[in-house]
Amino acid sequence: MKKGGLLLAAFAVAAYWPVLDAHPLMDDHLFFSWLEQTPWKTALRQRLTGNWIPYFTQMQMYRPLSGLVQVLNYNLFGAHPLPHHLFSLLLHALTSLLAGRLAFRLSQDSRAGWCTAGILLLHPRAALGVSLIYNFYDQVASCLMLTALLCLWSLRQDDKRGGGPLRLVALWVCTGLVLGVKELALPIVAVLILADWFWQGRFTPRGLLVRHAVPVVMLGAYLLARTNAVGHPFRTHGHPSAFPLPANAELWAFSWDLLLLAFCAAFAGLLSRTSKRKGASGYRSALDGPLGRLHVPAGGPFLQSSDTAPMVF
Amino acid sequence: MFLPAVHFCSQVTLRPWFFDERYWYVPLVPLSVLTGACLTRGGWLNACLGAAVLAFTLPGWLGLCVAALALVLAGPLQFCRLHLEVQRMAGVLFAASMALGTLKQCEAIRLRANEASAVHQAITEAVHGAPAGSPMVFLNFSEASVEREASFNGDLQWLLQPPFFREDLNRRLFFSYSTWDFPPCNRFRDRTSAALISELEKGRAVNVYRWNVARRKLEFLGAKRWPQNRAVAPLSIALALKRSLDPASGRNVWRSEALAVDPMVYRYLSIAMIVPPRDLSPKGPLVLQWSSKRSDQMQEVRLEWPPQSRTLQGEAALWLCPGLYTDWLMAGVIAELIVELPPGLEVASAQLSSAMRVEPARSLEHIDHYRNSELRFEWTGESWWDWKRVLVGARDRPISRVSHAPFSESVRPSSDRAQEVP
């Protein structure tokens, strides 16, 4: 296990070696310049109450947690690129570790965990996201979302042992924090409820309320804060002179998201129906059917009742 | 699992630049979980799904090779039933191939970073060599010649500030460059020329540099000062344009050579065109090129043909303001001018002027040109059109002589007016 981890880490360091002390790129210049010229107290206040890109209000983004991390990092590291790049790489490694752990939990197969961690850690398409200094929020958001999913998984295990308040708080904290990282994390609240729904045997209104009421309230609080800070809870292109969008773009985006929700609901409904027909123990056999063969590993193991997970995959 | 991927699709629809690879990160997380679980679970369908995700997400030939290898291993070879040592060896080879792909991507990113670093270094050297606080002009310093790897992507102005430099250089440096701008306008190339003219009118000396593309250095050309005894010439110069049709490329080019035009005086170009009797929907760009001894290579302004679909015939008149661009203004002496029109159009006459007349300017249609006209994204220039005007006798005008048209009052480009807004 240790050898495998070290080997993956060595591969990652070797692959990312060329960019570890690379000059900032693209938007990094803007943020470096703004952070250099803004006193840290003012910067903190702006990060909590203002737009993500300080000089560029055409795009309205509200990311208070990312902003706090950004100000903290700049005051710690200054304008030297090396520590910023190392920070991003460490976050990427942590994300890969958590993704591997989630894959292991879902599939009960340590090889799936290793394979997932390796794929994400060494994926060439992730290189640009990791190499841009002020793109760190993607890694932070991924870490927090994965931790929330793992907490939810652990809570299911703790149901049998009589609860897990720490994990519940961790679930709430991670969900609350990730909402302040990047707008793409907003659907995580719906994802958690859907994931909970997959666990048919323990899906009760009380359990649902306990686990998800706080995240829903925090989502509302975020949207309220975002409206106060940038003017609109959802729209990111409010200014008429912002990047003009393609024709019917918002309608298309809404359609895609609607398709996503319909797919998730249909998938959950199908699993629920199958489970009722075959009983709780019948998940495995049900998932080995056509649907399971297409995409069992991700959804199916959510339904498994036993967990023999070691700490590492 | 599919949530971020589908949401990603929606964002792509909303913003086409979401295909930028940095936005792949979050969708990659669930896709990696899905792929890892599929490849290790066994079964043909799982193997196919895992391999398909790899083929789709990994770049180029590497993606296809790794996906094919994964398909063979997880499918016919039944990876989960192989001996543990064989599984480990396959895993190490798989990780090594992925690491090589990532290394290649990181080297490409490093090239971009080095490009940004080289620009920073070149400007630092130029600034250290110039008198403190003096205005500096960079010729041939455009997005196309400086950042081929898109290392700034519209953010160059932030490089010119602390912490990269001790002072904010944006007010000292003048060049034609696309940069993101503030609301209410997304305008770029006209950002500096008005301020530069203001500096020159104050009688300040401007240090002129030329960007050497091959050496990636700024070469000092000398200090330029606006002559104090200059007078605004109320003259226009009629240009002798020779047609140079290249049948292979289909380019409709009109060339005027052996010129000696002072670009600081002659900032406007008017072209009378003969329009064919058919629809004038976009068929090509309108390109203006010029060369001078000072600028090492041809400078170019490329304007998209007006997006409005028009059905016209006869003649039309067009006004351009090349004086908007720093590379025209500081070129020294314009030696050659090339006008390229969409195929089918002919130039009846052309003339350089020091100003636009007020009366025609008010009756002309003003059109903004964008690099992406459909999205109205990235403003590249502006033009004034007289669609209905019939230029009687335009083709009979004498060429290569100075005509004394009554250009008494100047009409500034709307971009200059826009800059007055605080």
Core attributes:
heterodimer; A: about 325 residues; mainly alpha; 14 helices; about 70% helix; disordered C terminus; B: about 425 residues; alpha+beta; 3 domains; seven-stranded antiparallel β-sheet; five-stranded antiparallel β-sheet; about 30% helix; elongated
What do you see in this structure?
With 313 residues, chain A is mainly α. Chain A contains 14 helices and no strands. Chain A has one domain. Helix content of chain A is 69%, strand content 0%. In chain A, helix 5 runs antiparallel to helix 6. The longest helix of chain A has 30 residues. Chain B is of the alpha+beta class and 422 residues long. Chain B folds into three domains: 80 residues, no CATH class; 97 residues, no CATH class; 184 residues, no CATH class. Chain B has eleven helices and 16 strands. A seven-stranded antiparallel β-sheet of chain B has the order 14-15-11-8-13-5-16. In chain B, strands 6-7-12-9-10 form a five-stranded antiparallel β-sheet, with no helix packed on it. The C terminus of chain B is likely disordered. Chains A and B meet through helix 1, helix 2, helix 5, helix 6 and helix 7 of A and helix 1, helix 2, helix 3, helix 5 and helix 7 of B.
